[in-house]
Design goal:
Helix content: 55-70%
Number of strands: 0
Order of helices and strands: HHHHHHHHHHHHHHHHHH
Radius of gyration: 27 Å
Amino acid sequence: AAAAARREAAAGDSLAVLAVCCMKEALAAAAGLGNLEAVAWVLQGLPIHSQDTQAQVDERDLAPADIVLARLPHFSDMLARLMTTCSFKEATSLVEVVVAVARLLPLQAQRAVSDLCFELMHQTEPQVTHTGLVRALVAAYATLRGKSELEALLTIVTHVQEVVGKAGDETQVEVSAPGVLHEGTAQLAALEVLRQLEGHLAEGEELLGAVVRGGGGAEAAAAAAGAVEGSAPAGSGGASGSGAGGSGDAMGNGAAAARSVKQLMEALCRRLREVLEVLQVVVQTRLGNPQVLEVQVEVLIKAYRLLGAAAKAHLPLKGSAAAAAAAGVAPPPPPPLGRAFHDLVALVHKDLTPPVYAAVGDDLSAPAAPVGGEEGVGAARLSRAKLKRDAKAYSQLVHAIEEWEKHLLSLEKAFKAQGVNLMRGAKRSTNRDFQIVVPAAGAGAGAGAAAGGEDRTERQRR
């Protein structure tokens, strides 16, 4: 009887898997075309969710979005069923398909799917142990929020911190996190947050490129700024001609480009501030998963490099370059030091750099693997390899931070007459009081030192 029950359950699972696979292939193909009409045509084979209204609705005149929306509750039921029967792998595949379909719908419908995914994250029984499903739900919840995406990521990482604890804080807090975020999955949810932040930093690099190039023209820069802020781009002057009229047009275009670049830089600084507000919570979370820590360092390096490039983009032009920009025959001059940039600098000094150095120190002070016997030798070898990777990664991170601060000092010098102080609150020498030690094979813990620690005194002297 028990064997028969297992066979029946296995058959039911196989049917569920087959149904999900068929649905995934059909919808993925339609969504891959980027055509909502194709998705609606596929879903018309399903009844609308409420059978009572099936005979009363004539869908021939309905918009494709309405046809798709009428079937979304089916996917909610399917996902809930798959999760309650522990079919986590199939649920992961279905979440990915639903997200692909939702991206073709209006923003309000996307947010409805986002809400659904967040609701599914509250399942407690049976406990979700499939980290792929947790990451898929986190990504779906955040990326379908529109302009509220970073707020959603902040919500997730705050719950992760509740579960695993805040770095340097032994106080027990009441956990109100969704059920899928527990000791076994929370750190991988933080990994997904880091990957999403990495995508935002890549977008920031593209926007900063528009600033450096002057947007490729006033219209392009204004369009980029409008895309960030959701506003209409500023207009630009007509084509430049020759003689006095051409000179006037060039000056008009230059002024429009300068306004667009200023608008774009302010929008970029505000967006970066939102990204770093999430990132600083991740840094202050007690993470121990090596994969997560490695990605965290990678994201921090990219963040500080982008910060340094943004600071450098504010440096005034000199000589012939400044004259050409003023005449409108070259890219517009750099944007002024606005309030958004000052706020960004203050956030980094107060909430990001100090916990970054604290996290580096905590990781480097973690006890090494025990040595002894065959297993001890292998563990020691792995420990040395990890230290070498850490030495390289942390040296790159420290260098990125120093480059950022170096550009701030250059800006202070350039704007000395205005009394600009961009290093207020930055504790440069005390923050760097650590050293990476990589012991050689068979040597004690004090043998050798990474380059990141060797030249620390010289950096502080500068």
